[in-house]
Amino acid sequence: MPTTAASITRAERATQNRHRGAVLWLTGLSGAGKSTVAQALARRLFEMDCRSYVLDGDQLRTGLCADLGFSDAARSENIRRAGELAALFADAGMIVICAFISPFGADRARAKALVPDGAFLEIYCQCPLAVCEERDVKGLYRRARDGQLAQFTGISSPYEAPAAPDLALDTASGSVDDALAALLVLLRERRIVHQA
User: Fold this and answer.
1) pLDDT confidence tier of residue 74, bands split at 50, 70 and 90
2) Which of 15, 30, 81, 149 lies deepest, with the highest CB count within 10 Å?
3) Residue 102 among the catalytic residues
4) CATH (one of 3.40.640.10, 3.40.50.300, 3.30.930.10, 1.10.1040.10) for 10-189
5) Contacts of 85 (CB under 8 A, 6+ apart)
């Protein structure tokens, strides 16, 4: 069946929503604060009457990506699916806040290519490995160090930090409020949202 053109344009959705659809892609090691920042931003955007949604790595791993393991190929497929989903949400006019380790730069670049009009913002939650390990609420780093988890990002599998993210957040010493302030400035500068 041939695809048909959308009956509602992105511009029409932006006018109705009073903000543009966009993808904010938070990347960083496990424990870097991605989910915390994502949820705090979603709350702030909700208070600003913006339509947003958080896509979290743990959430997708229990549903849409439950069939995937943690090999390099499976990680890439996980991020491919997440990128496709995020692009659809953004096309529907939402601000999609993605919180994924997404360790490989090529996978993040592929997700970015799905979103038009410069509406993909790569946010690097920068936090030293030692701090992430201290925060290890799930015990994952300990299990990886004990050899119970193979191919764990930052320990036995690489993490490729973004070379030129749209924003780098110091999530080791900066507060969640600091992160929110920086993110809102970025969203205004990129004309995603227009409110203070």
Assistant:
1) confident
2) 30
3) yes
4) 3.40.50.300
5) 55, 60, 64
